[in-house]
Write a sequence for this structure.
């Protein structure tokens, strides 16, 4: 998984100078905002992906093949219906939205933006149910396999675009969007077919195993994840749009470049912590609390090492930016420092959040994120207009900080058997 995620990180970093060289910095900022908006709809699975992951992990731990097949079949059929609904909404609403105004872009490219959004959203809808295979592989505790599928799609799209640039074949914004969106669709489709027809045939989804009671079971947990995801959109995924309107599209690029650079430590930590979600579900079902506690101590040490690595990244930023971007973007130490503080808090929360999510006791998380969501957008807009890009990043820090307080408290209660009321729900 480390090797695969390293390739993923390098591909993401390599995309930045490649796309800026094709689009220019401002248009690249518009592209980032569009992908953010489309990415929001990943959360419209109503939490079925996360709910399936937890329920399927428990079924596997209990060696209940029938229940596992019912959960998988029910999730796939439900997600396909959701994808059809989203596709209908795309056909109706995308053509009537003024995307130039929505993205604070030039009116001259409004038509191109409309075509771009329509195309990539169609491809997104087609890929929507196929992405469930990632949740299934994570439930089987095969995170490296899940990461490989995601990374392969990104690498293929990067290589196609890189080849077009080398051959000096003209590529506009719409063409890039289609290439970047269709590669993951093809990869997910191929591996879904292979997994259910060759490697895990006994778990292949069928209409016969669709069960309403399983949907209710997945949904009861999934809806909590869904609400948390929707609130997370409000909290953080709106940042590109806020920066676009308060500072300008070129600052969207500055923010995302700095975010990707420092975010390397977050990605590396995610490589380590991702398997612990499903592993915790399995361990908690078997009452192996000592194992969970030992892993928390191990992850805490890695958290500290991640922060040291972040400081080193800032120190070597001039060299890294020169090699990475070739003077297309200059180093902003204040921005990098603020983003490092944000990731320090976020990684600390991820440590405890993965344990909480694995156990499925997410009600406290739901209420806390709902409270912070109420203040995020108005505060980000206010500070964005007052102190620019730094104000938006400062808002991110303020709104995520409470997670670092209540998260460890809940984990301690859960593992000591003292969690009651809202702490266990």
């Amino acid at each position: 998984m480390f090797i695969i995620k390293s390739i993923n990180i390098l591909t993401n970093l390599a995309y930045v100078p490649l796309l800026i060289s094709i689009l220019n910095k401002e248009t690249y900022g518009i592209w980032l905002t569009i992908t953010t908006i489309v990415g929001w709809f990943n959360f419209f699975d109503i939490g079925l992906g996360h709910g399936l992951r937890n329920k399927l992990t428990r079924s596997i731990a209990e060696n209940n093949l029938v229940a596992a097949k019912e959960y998988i079949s029910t999730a796939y059929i439900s997600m396909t219906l959701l994808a059809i609904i989203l596709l209908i909404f795309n056909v109706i609403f995308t053509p009537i939205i003024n995307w130039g105004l929505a993205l604070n872009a030039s009116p001259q490219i409004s038509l191109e933006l409309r075509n771009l959004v329509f195309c990539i959203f169609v491809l997104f809808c087609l890929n929507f149910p196929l992405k469930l295979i990632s949740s299934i592989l994570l439930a089987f505790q095969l995170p490296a396999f899940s990461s490989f599928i995601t990374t392969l799609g990104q690498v293929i799209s990067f290589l196609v675009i890189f080849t077009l640039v080398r051959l000096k074949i003209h590529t506009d914004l719409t063409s890039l969007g289609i290439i970047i969106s269709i590669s993951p669709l093809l990869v997910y489709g191929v591996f879904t077919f292979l997994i259910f027809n060759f490697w895990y045939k006994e778990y292949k989804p069928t209409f016969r195993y669709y069960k309403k009671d399983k949907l209710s079971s997945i949904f009861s947990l999934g809806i909590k994840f869904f609400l948390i995801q929707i609130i997370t959109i409000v909290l953080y995924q709106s940042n590109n749009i806020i920066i676009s309107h308060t500072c300008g599209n070129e600052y969207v690029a500055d923010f995302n470049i700095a975010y990707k650079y420092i975010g390397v430590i977050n990605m590396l930590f995610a490589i380590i912590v991702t398997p612990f979600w499903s592993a915790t579900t399995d361990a908690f079902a078997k009452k192996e609390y000592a194992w969970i506690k030992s892993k928390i101590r191990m992850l805490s040490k890695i958290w500290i090492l991640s922060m040291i690595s972040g400081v080193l990244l800032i120190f070597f930023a001039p060299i890294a930016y020169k090699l990475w971007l070739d003077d297309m973007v200059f180093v902003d130490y204040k921005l990098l420092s603020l983003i490092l503080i944000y990731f320090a808090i976020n990684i600390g929360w991820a440590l405890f959040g993965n344990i909480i999510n694995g156990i499925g006791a997410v009600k406290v998380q739901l209420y806390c994120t709902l409270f912070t969501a109420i203040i995020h957008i108005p505060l980000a807009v206010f500070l964005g207009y007052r102190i620019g890009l730094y104000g938006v990043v400062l808002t991110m820090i303020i709104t995520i900080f409470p997670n670092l307080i209540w998260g460890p408290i809940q984990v301690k209660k859960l593992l000591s058997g003292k969690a009651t009321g809202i702490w266990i729900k």
